[in-house]
TrEMBL record:
Family of this protein: Belongs to the MurCDEF family.
Catalytic activity from the UniProt record: UDP-N-acetyl-alpha-D-muramoyl-L-alanine + D-glutamate + ATP = UDP-N-acetyl-alpha-D-muramoyl-L-alanyl-D-glutamate + ADP + phosphate + H(+)
Domain (Mur ligase C-terminal): residue spans on this chain: 315-428
Pathway as given in its UniProt record: Cell wall biogenesis; peptidoglycan biosynthesis
Alphabetic keyword roster: ATP-binding, Cell cycle, Cell division, Cell shape, Cell wall biogenesis/degradation, Cytoplasm, Ligase, Nucleotide-binding, Peptidoglycan synthesis, Signal
EC number: 6.3.2.9
Amino-acid positions noted as binding ATP in the UniProt annotation, renumbered to this chain: 119-125
Protein name, UniProt field: UDP-N-acetylmuramoylalanine--D-glutamate ligase
Length: 454
């Protein structure tokens, strides 16, 4: 960890806990700051706050009192999920109190360089691919996962050396709170409309993502998806060295898909059919990972071996097993139609049985109709089953079953499948009608698959 007296004897407010808030508060306390933590959850139901109090940190819970700012704080480290419309933050902005997120704090103390991955879709899979690639033949140091995946960056950054590298998945929320943060390699996987309730509009969302490159120089590398016109334009507005990637056009420089082969700077790396995970979206993810690996000195042989064996990230089009010749895929993370569209693109529909359904948020699923066409069968469950059936009927899907629960859906899907088929859970809905989160939903799917084999 870099030695710093920057925060010594400074009054700092950590707003919001969860993993990143706890990590930031503990680090600032270690650096000699006078830390106050403020979290909305009541103290008796807040083990994180109780732990920090035991460390000697001032803890205020149950609400976010605006008069806290009368205490003379010189900095706020906020939980990324707390919007800037929070009254404390609005007042802090008026008082010109700097506001950062925990990733900025991690950067300031890290001896290791950062690789930063952001975008709307594919961040977790791409970050995980990169992590595995950079450790595949590493002789010195280690690549660490941090940020939205793995451990909080400010925890990991305390122990790394200059021989290591931090591979970080970064959200738009985190990037709004950076100041000095400068990754050596950064990538924006893609950009679609998302989190507009937080950002207000797509322009503000893009601006937050674009902050990943604001401190980069020509010695740093920025990977941009040139299939999207917005990044073709923005590629001319950065100091970083731009590395383009594309699944739609052949590139002489950068990473691209051409005639079913993934290339980097015109070198053939791997056949798309050899990737361990299916779908054009995973080709896009792999192109980013290949470019980062090549820029980091990883050999083509190691890249190919790693990506061939890569089985995905839990709950994201993850291959989870084979029962009687049927391959099962868990895509429980698909909590909206766009994610399910991406998953469906990776399969031969005539050999695919889809399981979908979940919480009704008012969507009619018309956007899924063209992607349902050609499905061998579909099983829909939960609150949205009737709406999904309407879309499947419009798509001409001949075999559709409606059930109440996922527990009924899995054996129903199996009964409609034959040897050589795939069974995919890609719900297109949030899980909260029947499960506390998408992880539990995915774990339940895997358990039900295993039950079929008994």
């Amino acid at each position: 960890m870099k030695a710093t007296k920057k925060y010594e004897n400074k009054k700092i407010l950590v707003l919001g806990l969860a993993k990143s808030g706890v990590a930031a508060a503990a680090l600032l306390h270690k650096l000699g700051a006078f830390v106050t933590v403020n979290d909305a959850k009541e103290f008796d139901q807040n083990p994180d706050a109780q732990h920090l109090l035991e460390l000697g940190i001032t803890v205020i819970t149950g609400s976010h009192p605006v008069d806290l700012l009368d205490e003379g704080f010189v900095l706020i480290v906020k939980n990324p999920g707390i919007p800037y419309s929070n009254p404390i933050l609005e007042k802090a902005i008026k008082k010109h109190i700097p506001i950062i997120t925990e990733i900025e704090l991690a950067y300031q103390i890290s001896e290791a360089p950062f690789i930063g991955i952001t975008g709307t879709n594919g961040k977790t899979t791409t970050t995980t691919m990169i992590h595995q690639l950079l450790n595949s033949e590493r002789q010195k140091g280690q690549a660490y996962l941090a940020g939205n995946i793995g451990f909080p960056a400010s925890t990991v950054a305390q122990d790394v050396t200059a021989d290591d590298v931090l591979v970080t998945e970064l959200s738009s929320f985190q990037l709004m709170g950076v100041d000095e943060f400068r990754p050596h390699i950064a990538a924006i996987t893609n950009l679609y409309e998302a989190h507009l309730d937080y950002h207000g509009d797509k322009a503000a969302y893009l601006a937050a993502k674009w902050r990943i490159q604001e401190n980069m120089t020509s010695a740093d590398f920025l990977l941009l998806n040139v299939d999207q016109p917005v990044f073709q334009e923005l590629s001319h507005h950065t100091q970083a060295t731009v590395i383009p990637f594309s699944t739609a056009k052949k590139l002489d420089r950068g990473a691209c898909l051409s005639q079913g082969v993934l290339h980097y700077n015109q070198e053939e790396i791997i056949q798309a059919s050899e990737l361990g995970v299916p779908g054009i979206h995973n080709v896009e993810n792999a192109l980013v990972a290949i470019a980062v690996a090549k820029l980091s000195g990883v050999s083509t042989a190691a890249i190919k071996a790693t990506l061939t064996q890569f089985s995905g990230v839990p709950h994201r089009t993850e291959y989870v097993g084979d029962v009687a010749g049927r391959k099962f895929y868990n895509d429980s993370k698909a909590t909206n139609s766009l994610a399910t569209e991406k998953a469906l693109s990776g399969f031969e529909k005539s050999r695919l049985v889809l399981i979908a359904g979940g919480l009704d948020r008012g969507n009619e699923f018309a956007e899924l109709i063209p992607h349902f066409k050609g499905l061998k069968a579909a099983v829909f469950y939960g609150e949205t089953k009737e709406k999904l059936k309407k879309a499947a009927d419009s798509a001409g899907v001949e075999t559709v079953h409606l059930v109440d629960t996922l527990e009924e859906a899995v054996p129903s899907a199996f009964s409609e499948s034959d040897e050589g088929d795939a069974i995919l859970l890609s719900p297109a809905n949030a899980s909260w009608d029947q499960f506390p989160n998408f992880e539990v939903r995915g774990e339940t799917f895997v358990a039900l698959m295993k039950k079929l084999s008994k």
